Amino acid sequence: MEKTHDAVWKNCLQIIKDNINYQSFKTWFEPIVPLKLENNILTIQVPSQFFYEWLEEHFITLIKKTIRKEIGKEGRLEYSIIVDNSFNNAAPMTIKLPTSNKNATQNQAVNMPVNINQDSSKEIPNPFIIPGLRKIKVQSQLIDSYNFDNFVEGDCNRLARSAGWAVAENPGKTAFNPLFLYSSVGLGKTHLAHAIGIQVKNNFPEKIVLYLSAEQFMSQYTDSVRNNNQNDFIHFYQMIDVLLIDDIQFMGGKEKTQDVFFHLFNHLHQKGKQLVITSDKSPAEMQGFEPRILSRFKWGLAADLQVPDLETRIAIMQKRLYNDGIEITDDVIEYLAYSITTNVRELEGALVSILAQSSLNKKAITIDLAKQMIDKYVKNNSREISIDFIQKIVCDYFGIPVDQIHSKTRKREIVQARQIAMYFSKIMTKSSLAHIGLHCGNKDHATVLHACRTVKNLIDTDKKFKGYVDELENKIKI
Ligand code: ADP
Ligand code: MG
Q1: For residue 192, is pLDDT > 80?
Q2: From the CA of 438, how far away is ligand 2's center (Å)?
Q3: Atom 16 of ligand 1: nearest residue by CA position
Q4: CATH architecture group of domain 311-477
Q5: 46 has a pLDDT exceeding 60
Q6: Nearest CA among 374, 393, 401 for reference residue 474
Q7: Which residues pair with 301 in a beta bridge?
Q8: The pTM is what?
Q9: What residues sit around ligand 2, an ion, with C-beta below 5 angstroms?
Q10: Which numeric CATH code is attached to 5-98?
């Protein structure tokens, strides 16, 4: 007796349900619609290419086994994928998956010829298509003043800026996809990412542009898992034409988020959508990322932003003052540009402090005022303290090479230096335990937690130790 596709799929679901967790079952199997069973080929409909790839990567072994069990050795599976709903003639494409062939790999399946079957999907309800979704206005989260006009060009940023410009003129169509921008803090990554987004909106108002930090992406994803609406999350991101993700380094060590991001990346890239990613390190130096993701980051162009030279620093300040309608004599501007060489954010901070000082005390902005301010400013500084910086100070203090902290060694003095570096990283930077661990010898978050407790205990019980820590604290803060 011939079994129907419904009955076969129902049995398959029973088996699958027993083998995976409820959440995954609900997310990845309930939305599947069985379409037909002909010549031992079961055709199932999945809502998107992304969905198909996810199944292939995460559940293929289970699906293969199940199909063979239900249909027999000859059993095969075909996917019918609903093409992106932005195309009006939502034509499903069919990808054949020879489940009876043990050697069938994911790639072979993807490269199989595609059958377009116009009729069958039209009446089938698709839980992923939310009516009118394309019309929803996505809040791009772009800051107006971070535009190209306000971004001063210099040798330090020429490549990154011009690649950003090219991308904004032709999103998704240049070789710069992804465009990967990296530098240390305060050198204009965030500004440039916004500038690209703003320029795309100017050039192509209909394009959906989204700027967000990697942290935001991560927490949205976590929320979606908790609220059981991962599908909406994924679907939302699939609609984006230009995705600007800032500070991707915060995804380091976050496997689940990376996994989702990896698939999203592939999906968007394949569809010719533009990705712009920023990071504090080059792809080659990043830690805590899966190789497959790092290799994606290298597909396009990785461009760095460097500390601007004196002329560029002066030009940046002049532009800022001009925009704000403030006049300051050239000698003061030059003095500031000479004194602050680290990054643009500090330069701006100093400028703002001087303006505040002068208006509060009704003093003219003179070189003297600038000098006083710089002295104070540089001492009280608002410099951002990095894990690398802490490690350097701690190692110098104890007279050990920094690379020892990253090594696996259990030598007492190194372990202690490592623990102290972890402790200061926890209290003086915004980094997570996992992030700190990653940068202190690839340890996990529990090790960092343990280190922080140990150091705290020693401070309370050991006077000499407390002396070291106090001294170090002063050194780090200066
Ligand atoms: P990052 O993201 O690399 O830490 P930001 O983009 O936040 O740095 O830049 C810090 C500040 O410096 C911002 O206010 C930004 O507008 C300014 N800035 C950085 N580079 C430039 C530049 N080339 N021209 C004008 N302003 C800049
Ligand atoms: Mg930034």
Answers
A1: yes
A2: 21
A3: 191
A4: Orthogonal Bundle (1.10)
A5: yes
A6: 393
A7: 179
A8: 0.60
A9: 189-190
A10: 3.30.300.180
